[in-house]
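Quarterly update from the structural biology core.
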Amino acid sequence: GQETVVVGIEVPGGATAFERVKVRSADKAEPEKIDTIVAETIKKVSRSPVIVGSNAYVFYKGEAKSVMFAGDNTSWAPRKALQKIGNGVFALRLDLSDDSRLEYKLVVDGKWLLDPANTKSNSNGVGGENSVIEMPGYRPSELAKQDLLEPTAHSINEMEIDSKKYGKRMVKIYLPSEYFRRGIAPKLPVVYFLDGSDYLNRAQAVTVAEKLIAAGKVKPFMMVFTDPVDRMKEYWASDEYADYIAKEVIPSVENKYFNVLEKGRANRSIIGASLGGITSIWIALRHPDLFRNVGAQSASFWVDDERVIGKLKQLDAEKGDDFNFYVDDGVFEGAEDSRRVNVMLRGKGFRAKFVERSTGHNWTSWRDRLAEAFVALMN
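Predicted structure, tokenized:
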């Protein structure tokens, strides 16, 4: 039948990982059976998914030899087969927590498709357009809704960086509306973003910040949005990109906004997501004199056999290392590495905030957790 095993992995460089895996013998790898009553309900409805308690049933109606499910909870590999429950009707039961949000596609006879029975889809820059399951307890970030506070047009400015390594690059600068309302305001701390355009457009960073500031949960802060040109080459915990941020972007910004910014590492934060998340940590570790506050959303800790985790292990709070960390992750993308990093950092005596949700690897998830990141970094 089926068993759950724990797989332990150790690579030559010393990095380790553990994962719970359901295994079946190859000759018994049949799809999980669907309850008869639920199967009859699925045959009658036209909208997917069907939610029954903590289960979401995805179905496909049409002629096909094979229908597979691929999504956040399968590492985007078509590992789950939909069971044939009737003539041209296939279904799959997903056991999800009440607050889950899951993105997926169906693979019908080898062709990847949006779920034709699901009207809810999302394009968030990771994997293109995907179908979406939102369980009844899932709540999107209220702070990200652009319904009350909109950024004023004059508050986002572009600034050119003339980089010796990368040539001319543009960064976007945001000054909070509270800064203009106060007239002569105290100098501002600053947050630097990797994948800045996605944080602006997909994660609604400005709207989230404005609402937090208006609610008094954080003090006003300036934001600097940076973007790579070749993401896979420039990120990946690159020394060259770290030096670009530290030695070219920060001096240029602080020279221009000298009368606005409060200098000092305690007043600088940096945050990124995925490869940007691991790179934000690396930038702070390579230039500890510049950043105290470090945010990483769904960081790719696996990069180079966990090279960055190895560097984090060398930190010693008792010897003067001083960092404030924010780390988050989604259950469906595999949060074990982030959990280990959180435990390690807290065990070493560092201030570390860890947030985990029943979500996948996408900008909607990072948007929903961004308010918690801001509060952790700015307080």
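The longest strand covers residues 2-10.
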